[in-house]
């Protein structure tokens, strides 16, 4: 689950005493298996005829009564899922269903979280002690950081207060001051502060202390923060480098310390995170070659490919392998005459066999084949550009 789903799960626990978000999702799916009359009879009788908590069913019926569109939406879902009673509720249907029947305050918090936290999901980098941060563009010595308070526990407050801001190293706070002493950060609300570099070659150390809770510490270099796919990832694209760089937000002139991506053309990647991880000074050169999987990807029980290595050469990733036509043979026969003994014509016996045979008997001269194909040996293929993630 991402962060916003965890927050919704906590709200559902408070509202309906359900254990998990999946449990609530299963309850909504169960509701679709019953008619509106059956659900109303269940609420009126307060019995066990429907295996869904009474408060959930009551809120759904109330939402249908208050809004005709909600009623039509749920009827359409019943029709959609009735042919397959065991079919689970799809994610998009769950989101729409829950948004129409949950308490408006829960829905508002959920929507606000999804809107403001598109860049700060739980499995993303850039979050410390409940504070998400996103480092924004660097231009003319100025960069910005957006901070968002994301409560992590049920007991966390709805807002936190800044007690102290300290900036050292190669930068200072830039006016206007948005993050300062006594500044209140409300949950899900973004606050963006600008910083100015005083020394482009020195990292900027930023510390923000909060009243009554652990603070946040950042070290910002002149390199853009790592984001997206891990370094070393190779992607194929039909876009040439200039267009790909623009699409990947690599619009500056190529700089291996700053660019996220590099063409796989053997160019230098000095100073990149990929170079730090692999100690390779250049990107792999994949121009005009096919890619081939290694015999073994991980040191686990799966081992090498099948019962014997498919690749006969032991290699590392990015290892080059030259041409090889492989083991094969050609059989070539000369032109044949009739298989008759020549003695029938010239009446002379062969000294070894007692006869002189025509045809291909004891041919020893090698002859080249004719009308041979030209060019390289290759399978059907489509040309692409290859790019590698370096930062």
From TrEMBL:
Q: Which domain of life is it from?
A: Bacteria
Compositionally biased region (Basic and acidic residues): 303-318
- Spell out the residue ranges making up region: Disordered: 303-332
Protein name per UniProt? Phage Tail Collar Domain
| Species this protein is from | Candidatus Kentrum sp. LPFa
